Amino acid sequence: MYSIFYKQQHIIKCLLEAKANVNCIDNHGNTALIIALKNKLYEIMKMLIQYGANINHTNFYEDTPLIISIKKKYNKIAMLLVDNGADVNAKDSHGDTILILATKSENKDMVEYLLDHGANINDKDINGNTPLFIAYYNCMIDIISILIKKKANINEKNNTLGITVLMLASQNGFLLNVKYLIENGANVNVKDHYGNTVLNYASKNTFYCNEIIPYLKAHGAIKV
């Protein structure tokens, strides 16, 4: 592995041709592929993959090479890994999927790329939040647009309160977001775990409720 630290590509190739173990690990559980990744050694990574590096190896911190590349926003490396069979639905030690990690870091290019390569658009984090819910909560407009275009479940509830993104948008007073969600199929009469409707959430925001409540009612919302 020392040859990787010193970027000695010719020595690495000689070792691999001599049947060196391409998947040996250091005291952190990192393989040569992960070490090359952390040092952004793209060409060496390609060579290691060619000689059989385990692309889905998990180190002692429960990170795969793809998880690490997404966390570091190494998009080119992430694409190399996906193109060579990396698991796009792996989860890190906190229960975040790769798509959720890309969403949380506002990496819209990778969000779209991962969705085009099989990432589960409705997987939830440990709190039961989907990528769409996370994007709405953090006002990530570009990512919201991508997720809805790719058919994210707009009516999915989070696990804690059973809130949908329409409830969140209504409570926060975002009329344009409310309109956008309803136009894309949001259920105006869905209830949370405690029986509260979208209108109940809109009523919590006294400053904007005069705009949002009439719009919701005009689109069939009822208050229970």
UniProtKB/TrEMBL annotation:
Q: Which UniProt keywords apply?
A: ANK repeat, Repeat
Residue windows of the ANK repeats: 28-60, 61-93, 94-126, 127-159, 161-193
Does the record's keyword annotation contain Transcription regulation? no
InterPro entries tied to this protein? Ankyrin_rpt, Ankyrin_rpt-contain_sf
User: What Pfam families is this protein classified in?
Assistant: Ank, Ank_2
Q: Which Gene3D superfamilies match?
A: Ankyrin repeat-containing domain
Domain of life, per the record?
A: Eukaryota
Q: Which PROSITE patterns match?
A: ANK_REP_REGION, ANK_REPEAT
Entry annotated with the keyword Repeat:
yes
What is the official name of this protein in its record?
A: Ankyrin
